[in-house]
Amino acid sequence: MKYILAASLFVALASVGQPIPPEFLAPGLPGSPYPLPPVETGQDMCMQPGMGWSSVDSLSQARRGHSSTLLLSGEVLTAGGYYGGDCVRSCEIYDPKTGSWRETDSLTYGRQYHTATLLRSGDILVVAGQGSFLLPYCELYDYSTHTWSLTGTLSAARRSHSATLLASGEVLIAGGQTASGVLSSCELYDPATGEWTTTDDLEYPRANHAATLLPSGKVLVSGGIGPAKGYLQCCEIYDPSTDEWSTTDSLSTARYSHSATLLASGKVIAVGGWNGSPVKCSEIYDPQTEAWSTCDSLICARYQHAASLLPSGRLLATGGLSATLLRSCEIYEPQTDSWSSAGNMASARYAHTSVLLPSGQVLVSAGYNIASCELYTPDSILWSGAQDISTEREFHTATLLPSGSVLVVGGENDSVLSSAEVYDPQNGTWSGIPPMSSPRKHHTSTLLTSGEVLVAGGEDSIPLLSVEVYNPQGDEWTAAAPLSEPRKGHTATLLPSGSVLVVGGENDSVLSSAEVYDPQNGTWSGISPMSSPRKHHTSTLLTSGEVLVAGGEDSIPLLS
């Protein structure tokens, strides 16, 4: 369905929003009757050894309620926000190489509490938000030309909604707040056409919620603020394959203006928030069991903070509001289920942004009445001993499962192995599982969106055609359709569609051929070959959805 801009249509759709009683609005949110808390005091720990914080170049414009998005170049685009009684149009780009900001093209409409999503094309989609009026208008930033342009318009203006990039490349907008209340309506943006279509409504109207893309491709929406229930515990799952929302297990503690972050285990951690007072407890959602469980609580309750997952798998929570406006930061360690101090920023801030840079550092920018920015550099990684694997092996594979365990498959010691083992990081132990039907080394092992693992090719005494699938739930292997030709030393890449791209390798000669596995029907299909045969190369999925194949060797090492 297509929608045509009409002022009367926006008024009519906005009227379906259900109002929020002012007493439910936390300090720091638009319309709240409560004053802001004072700034946190205490020793300035910025740049203290081991704490990892350092100051960097400030934005030219102070702002809060803005967006910060990592570009394909590794730079960060900060857009819009609010300062001094006005919504901000200006945008700036941070270059980690120089540590400085530069101005870029301004938004057509100044806005705050919008969303900004990196599309596969590398463009940035900014959606709705609060300007001088509530906005239905959306804009695209083209990094190649450094310009903004208007794109399709929402059927319902909104702010404090969520935006999620789906595996299809579409963007799902859910809920949010209108001038008259809270929405349950959702819309899908198609980058190919630049148009919006309506999709299934949320079960419960909500704003200031969190939306998290799960490894399955589904979307988990947690908490938020609603019209009648106020602070929400209820959670929902969106399934793109059916275009439907369904309820899932509720949070144990109602909350909004919290963060919900996908951990390396495939689980989601909900942190902080507000439900009449700042929330201290944290909870973890397991998509396999569809249940929440409580975990270690924050040292300091907080909301309107920012959270970034570090390359180590730990979670950094920065600033926010509590009884005071916070400078303090905390680190969550999933392995020990514990929070610890990550030091203080130089400046207290809320409604700021945090972005993980390619360097592994985290850029924290702006916030309430502040233009300053800071960098967090994670502490040095320390090694500690772990239990030995039960069978010595080399040329095997190791795959992180949704449970957080690690599946090790095949390889060789005195002979080629069919055995497999699973490492449980919770108790630090290895356990054997049923072996594969075929011994193999130099194979590939790919985690599918279903949570199963696809093991393809490799060699025993000769290169192999055979393919097997491991199901962690049933702890069993099943044969899958064979490759079109034997190969070892190849690569296998999970595509956004859920299919697996297998490229190159060798059998009697080095291969340029490639094929794609479709888990839906369990079949392989050939695609166009590479221009150069190669083995022992790398294949990397880019944010655009393309795959970069680099290096390797034919008869000699390759530059291409």
From TrEMBL:
Repeat among keywords: yes
Pfam families on file: Beta-prop_ATRN-LZTR1, Kelch_1, Kelch_KLHDC2_KLHL20_DRC7
Signal sequence interval, chain numbering: 1-17
Record's keyword annotation contains Repeat: yes
Keywords per UniProt: Kelch repeat, Repeat, Signal
Domain Attractin/MKLN-like beta-propeller: 141-369
InterPro entries membership: Beta-prop_ATRN-MKLN-like, Gal_Oxase/kelch_b-propeller, Gal_Oxidase_central_sf, Kelch-typ_b-propeller, Kelch_1
Protein name: Attractin/MKLN-like beta-propeller domain-containing protein
Organism whose genome encodes this protein: candidate division WOR-3 bacterium JGI_Cruoil_03_44_89
